[in-house]
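quick one, 207 residues, struct below
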Amino acid sequence: MKFIGAGERPGQPPIDHDVVFTVPNLLTVLRFMGVPLFVWLVLAQREYGYAVLVLAIMGSTDWIDGYVARRFNQTSKLGRVLDPAADRLALIAVAVTLAIAGVVQWWYLAALVVPDIILGSVSLFYFRGHPDLPVSRIGKIRTGLLLAGTPLLVLSKLPIPLTDVYFVVAWIFLGLGLVGHWVAAWNYFWAIRSKGRELRNDDGGSA
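---
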C-alpha cells in the first residue's frame, strides 16, 4: 500500500488505488471536521458570519479534492466511498443545525433525509453495505447547488444589505438542489437494484 498516491502522470486514466492517505481523502476528512465547528458557531455562538466562512471552506474543499484526485491520479477505493458519504453526512448535519436554529423548516431536512434512508435500506438489502456506485452527474450538480444555497441562506440572516436577495437566490439553489436530490436518488435506486440483482444472479441466487 502506498502512503501517498502521488507520482502518476496527469492525463492518465484514473485508477482506484488501495491508498488511504491521499490529499483528496485528507481534504474530505477536513471538510467533515468543519461540521462540528459550524454547529458550535450557529447554535452556541449565533455567529452566522463565521458560519458562512466555514461553509464556504467546506464547499471549496469538495471541489478541490475532486480536482486533485483527477489531476494527479489520486483516486482511491476509500475515496470513492468516503467523499460522497462525507458530503451526505455534512449536508444532513448542517440541515439539522439550521432546522434547530430556525433558519430552515423541518420539511427541508425531511426532503434531504428520506431519499438517503431509502437508498441506505436498499443498499443494506442487496450489499450489506455500500454499493460502490460512481457519483452521477446529477448527483454532482445537486451537491453543488446545495453547497451554494446553504451559505447564501445563512448569509441572509446577517444584518447586511441585500438579505432579501440572498434569501431568494438561496432558495432557488436549494429548490433546484432538492429536485436534483430526488432525481439522483431515483436513478441510484434503480442502479443499486440492478447491480444487486446481477450479483445475486451471478452467485446463483434468485432476485
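Residues 1-15 have pLDDT under 50 and may be disordered.
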